[in-house]
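Researcher: Please predict.
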Amino acid sequence: MYDVMKDGTITSHYKFLGAAVFMSVTVNASFAIIIFCAIKCYSYIDEIIETSSTTSSKTRAIQKQLFYALVCTILIPVLVLDIPVTSLLILNLANTGIGAKSAYLSFIMTFYPVIDPLPNFLIIEPYRKAVLGTFIRKTNVVQSVPMSMLPSKI
C-alpha cells in the first residue's frame, strides 16, 4: 500500500489504496445489506406470528426454526467472508507482510458456498428429515425360514 523510505518519508501507492478503499466499501455495503435484510425478515416473521390468532404450535415451531436458520445464514457470510477480507485489508494497511498467511484466509473464504446452505438443512426439521432420510436407509430384517417349512409343491 505504501513504502516507508530510509529517511522516514512515506510513498503511497494510490492504485493499491484505491483498491483497498473500494474493497472496504464493498465489504461494508455487504454487511449493511445483511443487517438490513435480517431486521426486515425478523420484523416480518414476528408480525406474521403476532397478527395471526389461529397459528398452530407446529407453525410457530417452523417459524422459530426459520428464524434460527436466518440467524445462522447471517453469521456465515460475516464469519467466512467479511471478517477475513477485513483482516486482510487491515494487515495490508498496517504494512504487515502477511505473505503465506493470507493463503489460510483465502482458503476459509472458499468454503462459503459449501457452508451457506447447511443451516437450512440442519435447523429446519422437514429439510433435516429429508436429508437424513436420504443418507440413513431403513433396512428390513429378512427372516430366514428353514427349508422344511416351505411348501413342497409350488
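Model: The chain has six helices and two strands.
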